[in-house]
């Protein structure tokens, strides 16, 4: 197995600044509840919210889909705890693959009646998916990637860059 860098630390940093600006404008500078989809989005969320120009509240949610590199069924493991009714919500995920995970997250969050829901992913694979994200950091080829929060069997989340597993 070999790790080949696809997106460098510098490229990620630069892109997050422009993404954060666009997202802050989308919410007209109003307070946003950022919902981080665990575990993969934890590093992206930490960096993104620190570049946003609005006030933020942070919530977490966990939907599990992958076992190793195999895609399984989407399961809601942990739901947002606070009341988000009437709030501006930004759902943040690491990567959009089939879209199943983000679609599940959006439908669970919709039930809580927020005022506005927007979605943001760092990466989007070039393939067919069941939902689109409102904000996308980078479009990437349909390959398994790790780093910057994304794992393979719980390893490599700590890498500061995105790499393809070959
Ligand atoms: P989806 O439901 O869109 O098919 O998959 C979304 C979730 O699967 C992501 O949030 C991520 O946790 C995981 N995933 C999808 N593709 C990859 C990948 O290439 N690498 C890693 N490490 N996880 C992935
Ligand atoms: Mg995930
Ligand atoms: Mg994973």
UniProtKB/TrEMBL annotation:
It comes from the Bacteria. Pfam families: Pribosyltran. GO terms for biological process: GMP salvage; guanine salvage; hypoxanthine metabolic process; IMP salvage; purine ribonucleoside salvage. Its cofactor is Mg(2+). It catalyses: GMP + diphosphate = guanine + 5-phospho-alpha-D-ribose 1-diphosphate; IMP + diphosphate = hypoxanthine + 5-phospho-alpha-D-ribose 1-diphosphate. It is found in: Cytoplasm. Keywords: Cytoplasm, Glycosyltransferase, Magnesium, Metal-binding, Nucleotide-binding, Purine salvage, Transferase. Residues 10-151 form the Phosphoribosyltransferase domain. Its main location: cytoplasm. GO terms for cellular component: cytosol. Pathway: Purine metabolism; IMP biosynthesis via salvage pathway; IMP from hypoxanthine: step 1/1. SUPFAM superfamilies: PRTase-like. GO terms for molecular function: guanine phosphoribosyltransferase activity; hypoxanthine phosphoribosyltransferase activity; magnesium ion binding; nucleotide binding. Belongs to the purine/pyrimidine phosphoribosyltransferase family. PANTHER family: HYPOXANTHINE PHOSPHORIBOSYLTRANSFERASE, HYPOXANTHINE-GUANINE PHOSPHORIBOSYLTRANSFERASE. This is Hypoxanthine phosphoribosyltransferase. It comes from Desulfurobacterium atlanticum.
